Amino acid sequence: MPDYPIGRWNWSDELGMWIYPEKDENGNIKYTYQVEPPEEFLILTEKLEEINQKLMKTQDPQEKMTLFEELMKISKEMNSMRKPTENKC
User: Fold this and answer.
1) Do 41 and 78 belong to one domain?
2) Would you call 21 exposed, middle or buried from its count of C-beta atoms within 10 A (0-12, 13-18, 19+)?
3) Is the pTM of this model over 0.85?
């Protein structure tokens, strides 16, 4: 299995699913697998599509720059998606 960055969701073309590696208290790597994309990925993808549509329609250079910066910010968020924290009692 390839080395995946720990503590964030990763897509595996080889397995065709999402993988979330994390270290347990003993330092062992535990993997979580899921076929459906993480909810955060779906939300960010929708935001990307909305901003991209605005970018395509606007003619104002300043607005284009602002929208492009928003796209870059969302792209960075997508590259560091974490698992939602579980409520532990």
Assistant:
1) yes
2) middle
3) no
